[in-house]
Description:
The structure is a single chain. The chain is of the alpha/beta class. The chain has 2 domains: 4-15 and 86-195, 3-Layer(aba) Sandwich (Rossmann fold); 17-83, no CATH class. The chain has helices at 17-34, 38-48, 60-66, 70-83, 91-97, 111-121, 131-134, 141-151, 166-174, 186-195, and strands spanning 4-7, 102-107, 127-130, 158-162, 178-181. The protein has a 5-stranded parallel beta sheet with strand order 3-2-1-4-5, with helices on both faces. β4 (158-162), α9 and β5 form a beta-alpha-beta unit. The radius of gyration is 18 Å and the shape is globular.
Amino acid sequence: MITTYxxxxxxxxxxxxxxxxxYPEVLKMIKHKLSLSDFELEQxxxxxxxxxxxxxRYDSGDLCRELGLxxxxxxxxxxxxxxxxxxxxxxxxxxxxxxxxxxxxxxxSMQRTIKLYLKKYGINxxxxxxxxxxxxxxxxxxxxxxxxxxxxxxxxxxxVIGDNPIDDSVIPSKVxxxxxxxxxxxxxxxxxxxKNLH
Length: 198
């Protein structure tokens, strides 16, 4: 029986368009603060091991963390969070339907980022687990094992819900989690309705 629902954050609960919108400002800030050209920034990213992601950009948070500019990154992110609505439509409906169940977030985002979104939208969950807690990203089984240990979870009673086939399905299922790969939260509403959970 499922007792715990674990949600991915990026592109599951929130729309990551905010990162694309703030990306040019973050790069400009980095180049200005560190007096780097485009080429020098690219070289620094390679040295620090920050890859270009599938969307053709660096993860701006990871890049700033590696370059010692997290404070400046969060100034930009907080400014954008205030004016860009990024919460997906069905989040509150889904959370209301899951009232009485344990609900958590497992994300590759930093704790501080996750907490900014939760605070802005007044979302309460039972736990938040990030790559800060695991010391790695969700595409490694150790991430999920550390989540199990920290939150004292029985993976057989949990379902991981997210949009990434590897991070949110293949890897967590290797350590016993049930998974639900989705394109949008309407699929979670359908799942809940079909299971008669509310």
